[in-house]
């Protein structure tokens, strides 16, 4: 038997679309109070509106760019000021940019954006929220990694590298926090149909659509189910890692 939200406060980064948005709905349904961050505030407002129409839970939204330290600090201050407590941090904000081979790259902008968002963003948000989570008797950090953190592919050196890093960060953090009532988990999805591929191909919709051709990808709510399951186990149960792929994906 798991335990539901019980008014615990869950922070979700990158909650303006895709997996983060679906996690917000799943956690709202499970009775968590929510703090949602992303750069597109108008999209967060729509998510908060959806939640208000379907569940009674309290939702705080604020602009957040995990690659900018001042933005992250302001977000944390706002969340803590609003709720006076934080129990769960879901580090979901992330992206891929391009599929260029290392030898083809002349401009490092895409590399930098992936590493700043997927690696530095996870470290930064964890560092800033940890002192607040440490005052709770039911803390939990849930990182959204990827199957790309287990299997690298040509054209994915930096994205895969960033998700291998998320796995390493998760494992190290779990050991660093041993003995404290804080669980540390990673959820590692295979292909999920979201705006991810549109972002990866810089808005080229036909390239993005081709990614899912001939297969049935996961939906964002399939991943939200895994997160909600992980978050609602009793506190003595730590789900270290869930790897979840479409049945069609090798
Ligand atoms: P989406 O593009 O739909 O969502 C990405 C989210 O991250 C958006 O809410 C975006 O919000 C946010 N984000 C991106 N950059 C920043 C930033 N600098 N600061 C704050 N928020 C940011 O893709 P997904 O939902 O698919 O991706 C969510 C996570 O899942 C990522 O970590 C991704 O790597 C991972 N993943 C996705 C898979 C897939 O196949 N889709 C497979 C495996 C893992 P905004 O632009 O408003 O800031």
What does it look like?
A seven-stranded parallel beta sheet has the order 3-2-1-4-5-6-7, with helices on both faces. The protein has eight helices and seven strands, in the order E-H-E-H-E-H-E-H-E-H-E-H-H-H-E. The chain has helices spanning 18-29, 41-54, 69-83, 109-133, 157-176, 196-200, 205-210, 220-231, and strands spanning 9-13, 33-38, 59-63, 88-91, 139-144, 182-189, 241-244. The model has no long low-confidence stretch (mean pLDDT 96). The longest helix is centred in the middle third of the chain and has 25 residues, at 109-133. It has one domain: Rossmann fold (3-Layer(aba) Sandwich). With 250 residues, it is an alpha/beta fold. It starts with 8 loop residues before the first strand and ends in a 6-residue tail after the last strand.
CATH homologous superfamily annotation = NAD(P)-binding Rossmann-like Domain
In total, the number of strands is 7
**Total number of domains:** 1
- Provide the CATH top-level class: Alpha Beta
Beta fraction: 15-25%
Rounded mean pLDDT score: 96
